[in-house]
Design goal:
- The chain is 27% helix and 21% strand.
- It is an alpha+beta fold.
- The chain folds into two domains: 8-176, no CATH class; 180-367, Purple Acid Phosphatase, chain A, domain 2.
- The longest helix is centred in the C-terminal third of the chain and has 18 residues, at 350-367.
- The protein is globular.
């Protein structure tokens, strides 16, 4: 592994002629957006934070948050929260604001600056990794937020809806700690699913109540839940009552019982309805409702799916006497079932999911 010596790196290179990004698919990072290295993202120490900013043409960047000596913050009173607000960072000198002859203020002695909503995340990381007083910076950020909240009410609503945010730092802290969850085959209002899957509920009213309570006792408003299909068997008016009760940002991979349009599911409370299968590249997961064939799963990925409920993947259909998902096409090691019936009727977290996948890999190594 090459030694990290730069304060910031980019995934891709600046073209100095057009000042646009090039070579964005190179596995190695560029020091200061220009100089090639043999450093990969995974080689960076934990004090580097991943971010995107207009100051690096929205490329993915990695900034060192330890060793910071000084910070300076400027903001513009306009209708976008943080869009044109700048955080200046120095690893060496005291940052100075100098009044030029033409009347403009110029900031000097900084090593890097970022702008936009990443400012608070970077500030949190600097507070964690550098011994520096950030009280003045926090006051300026709070000052900008309060001005924007009072003067740009429509823009505030587009960001936060009806939520009353009194402390922008606490809000971002919650956002930073947000988790990702998965569930499939809730089958709200589906009476017969209780019998088919031997669910421990006396009726759909009890089933709906437990599913909603379990969901909301697990998920916060800041979390994201991937629902992998077969949400409910019910009419639109009931869906409009049920889905908004569920906390978090809800993303739906439609199943075989979700035949309505994307517009329908948006109207009842789902934030996104992407096409299936959906790849999560950072986690090496590919999401679908039905199990995917091994040949449809990218190398190194695991297929997270539902549909089979509490049945084994390689179950023989008693009617046809054939296996719906034969072992030679659907290997157990590449599939992870998150049907509600096998995860305790509550969403399972990404962390728990990855832990289970890792444990299975270890067991396979032992068995082999």
């Amino acid at each position: 592994m090459s030694r990290t010596s730069s304060n910031w790196y980019t995934k891709g290179k600046f073209d100095t002629k057009s000042w646009r990004r090039i070579d964005a698919n190179n596995e190695f990072l560029y020091s200061k957006g220009r100089y090639p290295t043999k450093i990969r993202e995974e080689d960076l120490p934990k004090d580097y934070i991943r971010f995107q900013s207009r100051t690096i043409w929205y490329m993915t960047g990695f900034l060192r948050t330890s060793g910071v000596k000084d910070l300076y913050y400027t903001y513009v009173k306009e209708n976008h929260l943080f869009k044109d607000d700048y955080l200046y960072i120095s690893y060496d000198k005291k940052i100075e604001e100098v009044k030029e002859k033409n009347g403009y203020d110029e900031i000097k002695n900084y090593d890097f600056l970022i702008c936009g909503s990443n400012n608070i995340d970077v500030l949190f990381a600097i507070e964690e990794n550098s011994n520096i007083d950030t009280k003045e910076i926090r006051n300026k950020i709070k000052e900008k937020f309060e001005w924007w909240k009072q003067n740009e009410k429509e823009d505030y609503k587009s960001w936060f809806g009806e939520r009353e945010v009194t402390d922008i730092f606490e809000y971002y802290k919650e956002l930073k700690n947000a988790k990702t969850y998965f569930i499939s085959d809730t089958h709200f209002n589906h009476k017969n699913i209780i019998k088919y899957c031997n669910r421990p509920f006396k009726d759909v009213e009890e089933m709906n109540k437990v599913l909603i309570e379990n969901w909301n006792n697990t998920v916060t408003e800041f979390d994201t839940v991937f629902h992998l299909g077969d949400v409910a068997l019910t009419i639109e008016s009931d869906m409009k009552e049920l889905i908004p009760k569920l906390k978090g940002k809800k993303i739906l991979i439609r199943g075989n019982h979700d035949g309505k349009s994307k517009e329908f599911f948006r109207n009842v409370g789902f934030n996104l309805i992407p096409e299936s299968p959906l790849k999560l590249d950072n986690e090496k997961l590919i999401l679908s409702h039905h199990p995917l064939k091994d040949t449809e799963i990218p190398k190194g990925y695991v297929n997270v799916h539902g549909h089979i409920h509490n049945n084994p993947l390689h179950k023989v259909n008693p009617t046809t006497n054939e296996m719906e998902y034969p072992e030679n096409l659907y290997s157990e090691k590449l599939h992870m079932n998150v049907s509600a019936d096998v995860i305790g009727f509550k969403p399972i977290s990404l962390k728990e999911l990855l832990n289970i996948i890792e444990e299975r890999k270890k067991m396979q190594i032992i068995l082999n």
